[in-house]
Design goal:
The chain contains 15 helices and 13 strands. It is an alpha/beta fold. It folds into two domains: 98 residues, Beta-Lactamase (2-Layer Sandwich), CATH 3.30.450.90; 225 residues, P-loop containing nucleotide triphosphate hydrolases (Rossmann fold). The strands form two sheets. Strands 9-8-10-11-7-12-13 form a seven-stranded mixed beta sheet, sandwiched between helices. Helix 8 links the parallel strand 10 and strand 11. Helix 7 packs parallel to helix 8 and helix 8 packs across helix 10.
């Protein structure tokens, strides 16, 4: 048994999400949002090198020692799969391992608003799922893909780095491709999908002009594209897509995006107080003629009014979602205040001992 499996077992049994190994530090895990030590003693250079090498392809490990970064997936057993990120840091070698549930949760189990399910019924266009690292974007997308896989006959191509959730064919055909193994880049995988009779393409990360440009083209030519970005609300997401392009192309991109965008789902995870674990909160933008007009005009500040007027369609602001979790007793006033955009709405709920938090601006 690899040495690291003993740490993974502690993580799994403690309902943790991430294992952190760092040269010169004891092994630590993120349990319900907080990082805690799970073993005594600092990891020496030789110890961590042996631990990391043991579960990694030898050639890939050599590349990591040269380049300083590596991503791959590791399966401890049929119930425990991990996304692995190796990297070098100030004190030497380090790695973070994210536990990937082998059972894909449903949108209902995740508490994702019903409006998000509507994106699964679409036949073309682009849907963007956004949020900071570790906000559960992959989990929400896996639930959406599983819903389609259960209910529709489609060819679904996923392009990921690395493959996280492993989907079994149900009604649909799933083709899962890993960047660096099955295709050189996200853009290459996306370009190839245009020749692979794909109905739906999931792009694990849209981080450069070429990938975003190809995703828009695929959406315009009849594929349904799901992509992720590291933005935290609908307006910033639209701006980020357009700002990636040179200024002389932005008018054309606004026109493309206005016709192909189907929606934006921004997501955050909040620490629960009613039970162990975390809960997802979402901002939702659903494309309407008004959304298209705002994007074409380049006046994304008007999206605030569009979402306000679009609640009947299932649109909502992040702060409203946070407020509903606070009112339901799922999260603490301090957690709500820290995650909110308009913090003034949440100040009155803070306990007196946290008044300094509000006075300092968070």
């Amino acid at each position: 048994m690899p040495i690291i499996d003993q740490y993974f077992e502690v993580l799994v049994q403690g309902s943790g999400s991430d294992l952190h190994l760092s040269e010169g530090q004891p092994p630590k895990a993120r349990i319900h949002g907080s990082i805690v030590p799970i073993a005594e003693g600092e990891l020496s250079h030789e110890a961590i090198k042996q631990i990391l090498a043991e579960i990694c392809d030898p050639n890939a490990f050599e590349r990591f020692l040269e380049a300083g970064d590596l991503d791959f997936a590791y399966e401890m057993d049929v119930n425990s799969r991990f996304r692995c990120n190796y990297f070098k840091q100030q004190n030497g070698l380090a790695a973070v391992f994210r536990l990937i549930p082998t059972k894909i949760a449903t949108l209902d189990q995740l508490g994702i608003p019903k409006a998000v399910e509507g994106f699964a019924h679409m036949r073309s266009g682009i849907v963007l799922v956004t949020g900071p690292t570790g906000s559960g974007k992959s989990t929400t997308l896996a639930a959406l893909i599983d819903f389609i896989n259960t209910n529709y006959n489609r060819h679904i191509v996923t392009i990921e780095e690395p493959i996280e959730f492993v989907h079994r064919n149900k009604q649909s055909i799933l083709t899962q491709r890993e960047v660096g193994i099955h295709c050189p880049t996200f853009a290459d995988g996306l370009r190839a999908s245009l020749r692979e009779d794909a109905d739906i393409v999931l792009v694990g990360e849209m981080r450069d002009l070429e990938t975003i440009s190809l995703a828009l083209t695929a959406a315009e030519t009849g594929q349904l594209v799901f992509g992720t970005l590291h933005t935290n609300n609908a307006r910033k997401t639209v701006d980020r897509i357009i700002d990636v392009f040179p200024s002389d192309q932005q008018a054309q991109v606004r026109t493309m995006l206005s016709s192909s965008l189907r929606g934006v789902v921004a997501q955050l995870l909040m620490k629960r107080i009613d039970q162990p674990g975390r809960v997802a909160v979402n901002e939702i933008l659903i494309s309407t003629p008004a959304v298209g007009a705002v994007i074409r005009e380049g006046s994304t500040y008007k999206l605030y009014d569009v979402i306000t007027g679009g609640k009947a369609y299932g649109m909502q602001f992040m702060d409203d979602a946070i407020m509903s979790k606070l009112m339901a007793g799922h999260v603490s006033p301090v957690e709500a205040y820290m995650k909110a955009t308009d913090k003034s709405r949440f100040v009155k709920f803070l306990p007196p001992e946290h008044a300094a938090l509000a006075n300092s601006g968070g």
